[in-house]
Records
---
Amino acid sequence: MGELYQVDMQYFQMWGLPDASTPLVWRFIKERTGSGALGDLGCHGLGLFSFVIGKEYFKSNKPCRYLCERTKVTRWKGMDFSNVDDYYNYLA
């Protein structure tokens, strides 16, 4: 394949759109999930990255949140806050 200069992994799914109308489901609450985007899906991308480049060497940036406030999914109306990352940028 030659020398690699960049490997890019992206995963998009409608349920996690950065939109306040996206409900605050279990996946956006740290006490229920234990992690955010990195633990949920990013670990698979990092595994694939290690496989492709043939080594495990990573430096990372901080996780971030595009949208903190989401609609509650209860019979009560209103908004509540997500406390997990919904985006993670990883550099290696």
---
Amino acid sequence: MAAADVLSCPMTVNICWFSAAFFVPFVMISFPSAVLLVSVLSGCASGDDGKVKVAVYYETLCPASIDFIRYTLKAIMDDDYIPHHIDLNLVPFGNAGYNPETKQYSCQHGELECTINRFQGCVIKKGGGNQLQTFKAIYNEEVDIHKGSNKWNTTANEGLPQLHEVYACRDGDESWDIVAEFAKGKVSVEFTPRTLASN
């Protein structure tokens, strides 16, 4: 059966929730990867472009989120097939709290995580890159964070077409608008990372 035949099969997955909390970095294909792959191949598709909508809710300083991005999501985005069949939505707001009236923002791993979450929101919304460019920037930031580097807000994003817009967003009120948008669309998340695939 050709790949096109597989994609046109009638089986769909309505909503697939799963957590990467038990991801082991040395496993060749993790449970989240397997679910994403099955979702793509089974036609769990949404939108006019026929792509699987995949949302990843994560926290920028959460060790499990960092490992998920560095290993599982990296393997998926490096694949020759899967990235062309998913619409990836990265949401750095997994366990955060936000009050839009007071602009009080709290994060599980403290104030620095809130700052990085806001910055990554600007990268995602204002960077002007396609999903592979955006993912690469987020991936590079998380690698820098894992190494203990403070370069996460500079060199990691050099490949983005609209880098000046990212910094303007970071330094202005627009980052708060993005946080408010993430807060509005927040799903109930007990553990991060949490991934949702839907049709």
